[in-house]
């Protein structure tokens, strides 16, 4: 592991977290831990309004920081966006969001980091270059490798438009065939554009390219 991507284990009131040693190296998909609502400010459950006492104990949701009774905050769910090592206690509403995000981390992010091959056209050029496109291991850069090399910082991407083909009257059976990406050049207001097109020959796996584009669409959301 390179020094810039080194991680450390830290303990917070919410649990153990494996975080980057340097804040600048953190993933753009990460979230900061929320401040907990002080105990003295929550005499009742913030969901069901049950009064806290010796029997009914209060618990804080690790995602939103609000205060709940055990019934309203009983789920322990993985929270990768905050780098928790183990599943942590969350309220029902936050648990649903975290469960969806866990699927994104387990599936879509892995697809993006594995990469796919596209013909890439820069700006208004009429020439395209065959390039392998992947998300960097620290999830901060979109890396493009061919005869040329580009690294686009994820936080600089302003627009992701997925290109599709095929349709039915009901609107189904479309497949992703490409993408138009717009991003800002660091240090300026200039906006650059790249067009990604899935190759038609067997050296470019169409199914893999479509999965990569679908994952990129998730990232844009």
Automatic annotation (TrEMBL):
SMART domains: FYVE. The lineage of its organism: Eukaryota, Metazoa, Chordata, Craniata, Vertebrata. InterPro entries: FYVE-type_Zinc_Finger (IPR052113), ZFYVE21_C (IPR032031), ZFYVE21_C_sf (IPR038632), Znf_FYVE (IPR000306), Znf_FYVE-rel (IPR017455), Znf_FYVE_PHD (IPR011011), Znf_RING/FYVE/PHD (IPR013083). It comes from Mohoua ochrocephala. The keyword Zinc-finger applies. GO terms for molecular function: zinc ion binding. It comes from the Eukaryota. Keywords: Metal-binding, Zinc, Zinc-finger. This is ZFY21 protein. Pfam families: FYVE, ZFYVE21_C. Residues 39-94 form the FYVE-type domain.
